[in-house]
Design a protein that fits this description.
The chain has helices at residues 2-22, 33-66, 70-75. By secondary structure, it is mainly α. The chain has a domain at 41-77. It starts with a helix and ends with a helix.
Length: 77
């Protein structure tokens, strides 16, 4: 029990001394509003370009899952 207590105290002290490292701010970001607006527009362009791909993939998957209708099978004979 004494070992567990000393281990617990050692861990608490180790984590308590590491908290200033976690609070470090890193680098400052001095980007203006226009930079963020440009990046937002670029992101929207990428998303809009991916929408047709998503719709086509959904159509292909739903078409493959349904299979062929009996009329389509009869037309291919």
């Amino acid at each position: 029990m004494k070992k567990l207590r000393s281990l617990s105290i050692a861990l608490v002290l180790a984590f308590a001394s590491a908290t200033p490292v976690l609070a470090a701010s890193g680098r400052e970001d001095n980007s203006s509003f226009l930079v963020w607006a440009f990046l937002t527009v670029c992101g929207l362009i990428v998303v809009v370009q991916l929408l047709p791909v998503i719709f086509m993939a959904f159509g292909i998957i739903s078409g493959a899952a349904k299979g062929k209708s009996p009329e389509a099978k009869a037309a291919h004979k």
